[in-house]
Design a protein that fits this description.
CATH architecture of the largest domain: 3-Layer(aba) Sandwich
Keywords: Amino-acid biosynthesis, Aminotransferase, Pyridoxal phosphate, Transferase
Main location: mitochondrion
Shape: globular
InterPro entries: AcOrn/SuccOrn_fam, Aminotrans_3, Class-III_PLP-dep_AT, PyrdxlP-dep_Trfase, PyrdxlP-dep_Trfase_major, PyrdxlP-dep_Trfase_small
Bound molecules: pyridoxal-5'-phosphate
GO molecular function: identical protein binding; pyridoxal phosphate binding; transaminase activity
Strand content: 15-25%
CATH topology of the largest domain: Aspartate Aminotransferase, domain 2
Cofactor: pyridoxal 5'-phosphate
Oligomer: single chain
Helix content: 25-40%
């Protein structure tokens, strides 16, 4: 079957909540994927920041294969070693021994968990950021600061106040002694890789501490090494109260975690929250293997170097106004609103990227993407920009 056959079957059988995909991907290795017509692509989007080590990585494949042959799933009535090992790793990566982990499957779910955790403070008010993305379930959608995604689904949660991302003054005015939590992405991914001012997180931390509100870092997109740091907030020197991670955490399998830091980790009591598949032995095996591989191969350092490479080689391309982000979460801002055209032209030439907004191309490739692949991307991007300009 070819791409067009799959497209016909898709529209006959799947709901129309997504735009009809133009291609069907059938196999991949590392950052290379193939569609149903046999066309080869460099996957510069990585399942939107998810395939942290690309496709079919040997460490992940062996860990998952070993585990699925041994034990598939256990309920939350029982423990198993992989969830414990992954929780230990995550606790270590936060740098706070008091941290505790709750596992789920998706970013939306762990942000829902954060909302529930914040209710345990006895408060209900939330401050979130305009333009942010925190998921599409009713609670997480209430946090998401994009009207286009919300208007059809009102009423959402009451008591969520959105303030402009990066504006400390407006945030400080909104945070008070009745605020349960403030949720913020270290870099807004879905909005088009928007980086806040340098001291932003530090000032939010101070305002939260002063008012006794929880500071929740949504590291769903920035987490697990994506920005050259484990969670994406570390450069600010702050200690959050809650960190949510998903996407890259499962190295291509559905896995998410809410990490409660410090005394926040004691807020949930038995029976307060749960998830049948959360911390499944197979998904946590994939995650442990990927995190260990990233550590062993010093991938965080590589990500930072890759960012410098992209900034110095893409910023000067005609039609580009800015290259922003951190590590391998990169927004290429264009001088004109032609990102869809540029993304389509790149796809035709064998590179998958995302038009995050009308003038921004987002890339979030596997953290082990090679220098050769990045060079090929830069060369092709330059060709495309000269064709469309
Ligand atoms: C920062 C952020 N938070 C939450 C989510 C929601 O994650 P999920 O789609 O796994 O529910 C996303 C997804 O793009 C995200 O980028």
């Amino acid at each position: 079957m070819k791409n067009k056959d799959f497209a016909a079957l898709w529209s006959q059988n799947l709901m129309s909540n997504y735009a009809l995909p133009s291609i069907t991907l059938v196999k991949g290795k590392g950052s290379i994927v193939f569609d149903a017509d046999g066309k080869r692509y460099v996957d510069m989007l990585g399942g939107i920041a998810t395939n942290i080590l690309g496709h079919s990585h040997s460490a992940v494949v062996s860990a998952v294969t070993r585990q699925i042959k041994t034990l598939s799933h256990v309920s939350n009535f029982y423990s198993h070693p992989n969830a414990i090992e992954l929780a230990q790793l995550l606790v270590r990566l936060t740098g706070d021994k008091q941290s505790r982990v709750f596992f789920a499957q998706s970013g939306a779910e762990v942000n829902e968990a954060a909302i529930k955790l914040s209710r345990k403070t006895g408060r209900t008010r939330i401050v979130a950021m305009t333009g942010s993305f925190h998921g599409r379930t009713m609670g997480s959608l209430s946090l998401t600061g994009q009207n286009s995604k919300r208007t059809s689904f009102v009423p959402l949660l009451k008591n969520v106040k959105h303030v402009p991302f990066g504006d400390v003054k407006k945030a400080k005015r909104a945070i008070n002694s009745r605020t349960a939590m403030v949720i913020v992405e270290p870099i807004m991914g879905e909005a088009g890789v928007i980086v806040p001012p340098l001291n932003y997180l530090k000032e939010l931390r101070q305002a939260c501490t002063k008012n006794g509100a929880l500071l929740v870092i949504d590291a769903v997109q920035t987490g697990i090494g994506r920005t050259g740091q484990w969670f994406g907030y570390e450069h600010s020197g702050i200690k959050p109260d809650v960190i949510t991670v998903a996407k890259g955490l499962g190295a291509g399998l559905p896995l998410a975690a809410m990490i409660a830091v410090g005394k926040t980790s004691q807020l949930f009591e038995p029976g307060d929250h749960g998830s049948t598949f959360g911390g499944n032995p197979v998904t946590t095996a994939a995650s442990v293997a990927a995190i260990k591989w990233i550590e062993k191969n010093k991938i965080l350092i590589k990500c930072k170097a890759d960012f410098r490479f992209l900034v110095s080689n893409v910023s000067s391309i005609s039609g580009v106004s800015e290259v922003r982000g951190a590590g391998l979460l990169v927004g290429i801002a264009l001088q004109k609103n032609i990102s869809s055209e540029v993304a389509a032209a790149l796809q035709a030439k064998g590179f998958l990227v995302n038009a995050a907004n009308p003038n921004t191309i987002r890339i979030a490739p596997a953290l082990n993407v090679s220098k050769k692949e990045l060079n090929q991307f830069v060369k092709t991007f330059k060709e495309v920009m000269s064709d469309v300009n």
